[in-house]
């Protein structure tokens, strides 16, 4: 379920069944993925209904773009040119290629992430802001899945070793604690084989009503 609200209209409920056509799911493999990216994806991917531990989260460049109903409030959102930051570069493989898998029982999310050439920071390596972005995205998805709609209140990141452009890494997150409106998530980015630690992070996410986005 996705909630929609704006300052001048009452909060409305919009469900994915209102989608008019199949949107592009960016979490599915494409030709830019390396063999290693594909191998890791296959490792976590499970047949729908197969009872596997991991569920892939679909990923769209804008969730509401494909909805057909919802009145004035929704149409104002749909008509805007906003796009999800991590999915707004058209060239496959150029920036963020990733798929997130959720393990509800363990309250964990794992993301297989291939960092493209447009994410350069230090020569040949991934920009720290791009690393922060993927961490925010994956920890945010993990917190959202467990606690419902949340915003990032705090993110602490230790950059332990640089990530090479074009490489594939694993972003592994877990919900550590939920207390009232607050959800704490920890995160580690490692090399694909798990042998090298690149980044460690913790995040605090606070549950809000979607109307918070319109009222500040
Ligand atoms: C079915 C599911 C599918 C899932 C599929 C999802 C896919 C989806 C993928 C996309 C995932 C993208 C993920 C991006 C996520 C962003 O990037 S969010 C954007 C960046 N974040 C923001 O812009 C947030 C800006 N900040 C705010 O709006 C407000 O400060 C907040 C965080 C909502 C908190 O404000 P508030 O609601 O007024 O709450 P407030 O009463 O101040 O605080 C509540 C509690 O939190 C504590 N707190 C608040 N801020 C802090 C802080 N900075 N440090 C420590 N404690 C704090 C307070 O002390 C308080 O604690 P208690 O007193 O209750 O113990």
UniProtKB/TrEMBL annotation:
Listed under GO cellular component are:
mitochondrial inner membrane; mitochondrial intermembrane space; ruffle membrane
- Please tell me which top-level EC class this enzyme sits in: hydrolase
Its main localization is membrane
A single Pfam family it belongs to is: 4HBT
One GO MF term on file is: hydrolase activity
Q: Which CDD domains match?
A: PaaI_thioesterase
Q: Name one GO biological process term.
A: fatty acid metabolic process
Q: Where in the cell is it found?
A: Cell projection, Ruffle membrane; Cytoplasm; Mitochondrion inner membrane; Mitochondrion intermembrane space
> Which UniProt keywords are listed?
Apoptosis, Cell membrane, Cell projection, Cytoplasm, Fatty acid metabolism, Hydrolase, Lipid metabolism, Membrane, Mitochondrion, Mitochondrion inner membrane, Transit peptide
Catalytic reaction annotation: (9Z)-octadecenoyl-CoA + H2O = (9Z)-octadecenoate + CoA + H(+); (5Z,8Z,11Z,14Z)-eicosatetraenoyl-CoA + H2O = (5Z,8Z,11Z,14Z)-eicosatetraenoate + CoA + H(+); dodecanoyl-CoA + H2O = dodecanoate + CoA + H(+); tetradecanoyl-CoA + H2O = tetradecanoate + CoA + H(+)
- What residue stretches are annotated with the Thioesterase domain? 124-196
Does the entry feature the keyword rRNA-binding, yes or no?
A: no
The secretion signal range is none
Its record classes its membrane topology as: Peripheral membrane protein
**Family assignment from sequence similarity:** Belongs to the THEM4/THEM5 thioesterase family.
Q: What is this protein called?
A: Acyl-coenzyme A thioesterase THEM4
The organism's taxonomic lineage, starting at the top: Eukaryota, Metazoa, Chordata, Craniata, Vertebrata
């Amino acid at each position: 379920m996705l909630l929609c609200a704006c300052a001048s209209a009452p909060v409305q409920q919009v469900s994915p069944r209102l989608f008019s056509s199949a949107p592009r799911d960016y979490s599915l493999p494409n030709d830019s993925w390396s063999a290693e990216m594909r191998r890791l994806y296959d490792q976590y991917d499970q047949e729908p209904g197969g009872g596997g531990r991991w569920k892939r989260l679909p990923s769209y460049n804008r969730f509401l773009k494909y909805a057909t109903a919802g009145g004035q409030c929704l149409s104002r959102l749909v008509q805007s040119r906003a796009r999800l930051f991590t999915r707004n570069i058209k060239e496959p493989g150029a920036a963020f290629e990733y798929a997130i898998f959720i393990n509800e029982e363990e309250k964990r999310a794992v993301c297989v992430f291939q960092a493209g050439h447009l994410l350069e920071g230090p020569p040949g390596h991934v920009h720290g802001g791009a690393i922060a972005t993927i961490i925010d995205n994956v920890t945010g998805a993990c917190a959202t899945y467990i606690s419902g709609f949340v915003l990032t209140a705090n993110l602490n990141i230790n950059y332990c070793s640089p990530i090479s452009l074009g490489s594939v890494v694993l972003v592994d997150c877990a919900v550590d604690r939920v207390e009232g409106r607050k959800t704490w998530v920890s995160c580690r980015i490692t090399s694909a084989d798990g042998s090298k630690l690149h980044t460690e992070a913790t995040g605090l996410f606070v549950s809000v009503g979607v109307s918070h986005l319109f009222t500040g």
